[in-house]
Amino acid sequence: MYSVLDRNFVEPFIEGTIHTLKVQTGHEPLAGTPRLKEKGISGLPIEIAGTVGIWSETYQGSITICFPKNTFLAIMNELLGENYQEISSEIESGAGEIMNIVF
């Protein structure tokens, strides 16, 4: 298992996420610090996430985009022209759809 992130591998995902959210919502997002998933990570405001699995000769794992509730709701409201106040089954697949667009 890798103990550090390879910036050359991660950077396209960060840039793709920023571009996708900017195009889809018209707002310039700020990326948090990317990190490897580890047991015991706490203190991160993650209430919904979208994940895509990646398997190749050099990488086996997943890339996940994580959102605090209010950020996710703001994005979904912008994309869908609605006023959701809670994450519901109606919009929870949106996190995965955002990750699919980025990927």
Descriptive account of the structure:
By secondary structure, this protein is an alpha+beta fold. The protein contains three helices and two strands, in the order H-E-E-H-H. Strands 1-2 form a two-stranded antiparallel ribbon. Strand 1 and strand 2 form a beta hairpin. Helix 1 packs across helix 3 (93-102). The relative contact order is 0.19.
Summed up:
The chain is α+β, with helices and mostly antiparallel strands.
Apparent shape: globular
The largest sheet, given as strand count, sense and whether it forms a barrel, is:
2 strands, antiparallel
Q: Which percent range describes the beta-strand content? A: 15-25%
Order of helices and strands: HEEHH
Spans where pLDDT lies below 50 across 5 or more residues: none
Helix-strand blueprint:
Blueprint: H1 7-25, E1 48-55, E2 60-67, H2 69-80, H3 93-102
Antiparallel strand pairs: 1-2
Keywords for this entry:
single chain, 103 residues, alpha+beta, two-stranded antiparallel sheet, globular
